[in-house]
Amino acid sequence: MKKKTNYFSSWINIFGAREHNLKNIDVAIPKNQFTVITGPSGSGKSSLALDILFAEGKRRYIESLSSYARQFLGTSKKPEVERIEGLCPAIAIEQKTVGSNPRSTVGTITEIYDYLRVLYARVGRVHCPQCHKPITSESADTITQIVCAQFDQQTVTIVSPIIKQKKGEFQHELTKLFAEGFYRFIIDETSYKFSSPSDIATLGLKKNQAHSIDIVIDSFQIASDERSRIQEAIEKSFSLADGMVKILYENGSQSYSSSHICVSCSTSLPEIEPRLFSFNSPIGACKHCQGLGALHSWSWGQEGQPIAQSNNNGFWDRYAQSTTCKHCLGKRLNAYALSITIGGVNIIDLCAMSIENMQRFFADIALNEVEQEIAHTLLTEIASRLGFLENVGLSYLTLNRTARTLSGGEGQRIRLARQMGSSLSGVLYILDEPSIGLHQKDNDRLIGMLQMLKEQGNTVVVVEHDLDTIKQADYVIDMGPAAGTLGGLVTAHGTPADIMHDPNSLTGAFLSNRRFIAIPANVRRPVFYMDLKNLDKNNLKIKEVSVPIGVLCGISGVSGSGKSTFVMDELVPMIKWYAQGSYFNEETDKVKEQMSRWIRYLVVLDQTPIGRTPRSNPATYLGIFDEIRRIFAALPESIARGYGAGRFSFNVAQGRCAHCKGEGTVTIEMHFLPEVIMTCKQCRGTRYNHETLQVLYRGKTIADVLNMTAREAVEFFSVHTTILKRLQLLCDVGLDYVALGQPATTLSGGEAQRIKLVDELSKRTVGTIYVLDEPTTGLHSSDIEKLLIVLNRLVDKGNSMVIIEHNLDVLKTVDYLIDLGPDGGDKGGHLVAYGTPKEVCQARKGHTALYLAQAIADTPQ
Predict the structure, then answer these.
(1) What is the pTM of this model?
(2) Which is nearest to 568 in space by CA: 774, 316, 724?
(3) Sign of torsion, CA 212 218 221 226?
C-alpha cells in the first residue's frame, strides 16, 4: 500500500495482515472519519474489517479483564496480523439475523419495550380484568370487609409477600426479620419455622435462581369477632410488603393490594411493577403459553390426541404445529397486565402499531400534570429511539414483530439504531453492508445516520458496494484486484475523488462511469400475463395485477412495501396452481397449450445456507464431489486396492484421517484462553489417511482437488462434461474464486444463493419460472454484470424470471417492473406503477421512479 497522504490527523495502522486471502498487507484507516472498504466479492473486505479490526479490538478488550470475567465472556484468538497501532474499542454490526428466540422482538432488541414497561407501571390506568371498571386505591379497612365477606367461616393464613420471583440467597434479609420477631416463612411454596439464626444459615438458597418468600403473619378462622385481628394482620403485611397482602385458604390463595382492588367484584391486581408487563417473566406472562402467544403440538399423539407443548425451539418450529393461545389470543401477557392502559391502549396493542403510528400516538397523548412529570424522561427516551428506527428506514415495523422474521438487513439496522441511542464516542464501529434490503430512499437516510455516528466522535468503517455510500465516504479502501487467491490486496485508497481517478481501482471505474452496466437496447415483450386479483395478505391492498411471463420481471418498492408478501405469499402459490393445471378447463385448452411450455417448473431461491456444518461445501451441494469420487474410484490403483467411491469421502471412517475424523483440524479446549484450533498433525489438514492420499488422478490427490478453486477445477476437469458444466456455471455467476471444499459455514448469503442458482441451472433448460430474493446482496458492480449475463441467458432460453430487488443497476435492465408502495407498513401494499423501466419513470409515481429515472439518465448511452 502506498504511503498515506495527510488527509486526517490520526490513523489506525495495520501491518502484515494475512487473515484468509489477505496477502501480508499494510493498511491505514483514518480515525473519527467515515471509511468504506469495498471491492469485488471475495476480495478480502470482510477479512480486513471483521476478522482483523474487530477481532483484535474484541480480543484486546477481553484480555484487559480479570480471568474470572473472561471465563463468562469467552475469548477470541489473535488474528493473523503482525501488529495494529491506534486501535479503538470496537463494536461490529454484522449482516446476520438478530436471533431465532421466539421471545425476542423488535421492542426487546431496541430496549424500547423496557421503557414502555416502566411507563405503564408508573402512569398506567388500572382497570378490572373481570368487569373492566377503573380500579382505585382502597384502605386496609375496605380490604378487611372484602376478606370477611369472601372467606367467612374459612380458616385462612395471612402472609406478607416480601420477595416475588427474585434471584438471591436472602440470608441477610431473613436473619433481620428473625431478629424482629418473625419465625415462620413460606419459601418457594415450602413452609419453614426457624428456631435460631443458624437455621437460616443452613437454608442454602441458590443465588442464581429466582425465589419467592412470604412472611406468615397470622392464621385463624374468619369470623365477625376477629375483624380487628384481621385488619391488624393486613396492615402489618402492608408495612412489610409495600401495600401487598396474600390470603392463603384451603383451595388456593388470593393477593390484595392497597391500591389495586376492584370494589365492584372484589378482584385484586398484583403489584404494578415493570415485570408485570414482561412476557419473559412468570409474573406477567400468560400462564397457558408461558408468554409465547402460541402453543405447539404434534399432529399425532396417544389415541390420536395432539401433544401440546409450550416450549418453542428450532425442533418444534420444524416438526410441530403452532396454534394461537386461546387464553391470551396471542398477546403473551396475562389478563392483569392487559387491563392496564395509557390513552385507552394496553401495552401489547401499542406494540402492534407501526413505529410511525406509535410516534403519532405519543405526540398526541394526554397526561395530567403529575403523570407528565413522572413520564417526561421515559417519553423523551422512547421518542428518541423511535426516531432512530425511523431514520434507518424501519418506520413500517412494529415492536411486537419477532426477531426470527427480520431480514439480515433489518436486524443490522435495528442494532445500528440501538447504537445511536447509546450516544457513545471514541468507538470504532464496523458495519457489514448495512444497505442490504434498503430502497435508495431509505439508503439516503442510512448514510445520514452513519455521518451522525461519525459526528458523535466515532470512527465508522463500512464494508459496502453501494456506490452512493462510497461517494459520501471520507476515505475509501478498494480491495482486489479480483477474488479469492487473486484478491487480498489494496488496489487503491484515498478520498472518493482519488479512487474515481485511480486507473487501478475497479470500483473507481464504476464511480467515474468508465465502466458501467448498460441498459439493453431491446426490451423483451411478455408472451402472456398471469392475473392476480384481490390481494390482501399482510399489508397488501391490490385489486388486480398482471405478472408477465417469458421476461425478466423486477419487483421493487421501499422496505416494508409488501414485495416479499406479494411474491412469496401470493405469486408463488399462484404459479404452483398454474403449473398443476388447476387453472385450466375445456374452454381454455388453447391457453393451456401455450402456457404449458412456459410454466413447467418453479424454482424459488433465497439466501439460507446450503449447509450448517463445515462438512458441507459447494462440491457436495452441487453433486460434483460424487462425480469426482467416482473418477478416483475408477482409477487402476483404486481397483487394485479394492477402493470404492466411499473411500474418498471424509465422512466415512474407512478413508478419512482417524485422528481428526475428517475435520482437518483438531480443537484443544483451554481454560481461560481461546480454544486452540490446530491443523491435524497426522493428516496435515488434508482430512484423509495416508493410504487414501496415495491414489493420484493427473498427479493430484483427492485433498488437492478439494482445495482447487472453481477456476482451477474448470481446466483440470475439462474432459468431464458433467463436472465441467457445473464448474463453468460457478464461474459464470462470479464464484470462480470459491474452493470446491470450502465449508458452507464460511459462505455469505449471496454466495449461497448463487450456488443454489447453479444447482438449478444444471438441472433444467426451459419452461422454468425462477423467483429470486435480492440476488445482488453482497455483490460488487462487476459481479452484478456477471450475474445479469447469466439471468438474461436463462430468459433467452425460454424461462421466466421474477426478482425482488432494490439495486438500480438491475431495475434499469429488467424487461418489466412492478413497483409497490408508495411507502412501508400501513402506507404500503399498493400497486404504484408497472411496465417497462422507462414507462415506470414516465409515470412519476412513487419513490422508485424518482431514483430510477436518475440512474437511467446517469448511464452512458
Answers:
(1) 0.77
(2) 774
(3) negative
Q: Which residues contact 857 (CB under 8 A, 6 or more apart)?
A: none
Length reported for the chain: 861
> Of the ranges 23-32, 272-281, 667-676, which one carries the lowest mean pLDDT score?
667-676
Q: Where are the alpha helices (DSSP H) in 702-748?
A: 702-706, 710-716, 721-732
- H or E stretch covering 461: strand 459-463
CA pair distance 592, 599, nearest whole angstrom: 10
Residues with Cβ < 8 Å from 691, sequence gap 6 or more? 641, 655
Q: Is residue 752 within 8 Å of residue 610, measured between CB atoms?
A: yes
- The identity of residue 607, as a single letter, is Q
Instruction: Using the predicted structure, report yes or no on whether residue 593 has a pLDDT greater than 90.
Output: no
Spatial distance between the Cα atoms of 816 and 822, rounded to a whole number of angstroms: 18
Q: Which three cell numbers, joined as nine digits, stand for 443? A: 439508503
From 746, 772, 778, select the one nearest 758 (Cα to Cα). 772
CA distance 335 to 130: 9
Residue tagged 489477505 (cell numbers): 22
Hey, is 267 helix, strand or coil? coil
How do residues 252-293 score in pLDDT, each as one tens digit? Answer: 888 888 877 776 676 777 888 999 999 999 999 999 999 989
pLDDT digits (tens, 9 = 90+) for 339-369: 999 999 999 999 999 998 999 999 999 898 8
CA distance 17 to 19: 6
Before 822, cis peptide (omega within 30)? yes
DSSP string over 11-62: EEEEEEE-STT--SEEEEEETTSEEEEE-STTSSHHIIIIIIIIHHHHHHHH
What is d(CA 679, CA 687) in angstroms, rounded to the nearest whole number? Answer: 10
SS3 803: strand
Per-residue pLDDT tens digits for 219-232:
989 887 888 999 99
Distances 228 to 144, 166, 261 between C-alpha atoms, Å? 9, 33, 20
Which secondary-structure segment (H or E) carries 792? helix 781-796
Peptide bond between residue 481 and the one before it cis (omega within 30 degrees of 0): yes
User: Is 767 exposed, middle or buried (CB count within 10 Å of its CB: 0-12, 13-18, 19+)?
Assistant: middle
Rounded-to-integer distance, Cα 45 and Cα 27, Å: 12
